[in-house]
Design brief:
The chain has about 50 residues and is mainly α. It has a domain of about 30 residues. About 40% of the residues lie in helices and about 0% in strands. It starts with 9 loop residues before the first helix and ends in a 12-residue tail after the last helix. InterPro entries: ANL_N_sf (IPR042099).
């Protein structure tokens, strides 16, 4: 837990995991997965990334 942050309620976490919204995957991996699945799609980027 980070200082100044509030935990999500347990029922919220359970519901979102059951629905597949939270998969326990880091954001960077989710982005890489999307790129692998849709390599020909355009991407919105900022700066040098």
């Amino acid at each position: 837990m980070l200082d100044g942050c509030t935990d999500w309620p347990d029922d919220f976490i359970r519901r979102y995991r059951e629905q597949g919204y939270w998969r326990g995957v880091p954001l960077g991996e989710l982005l890489r997965e999307q790129v692998r699945r849709t390599p020909d799609k355009e991407a919105l980027v900022d700066g040098s990334r």
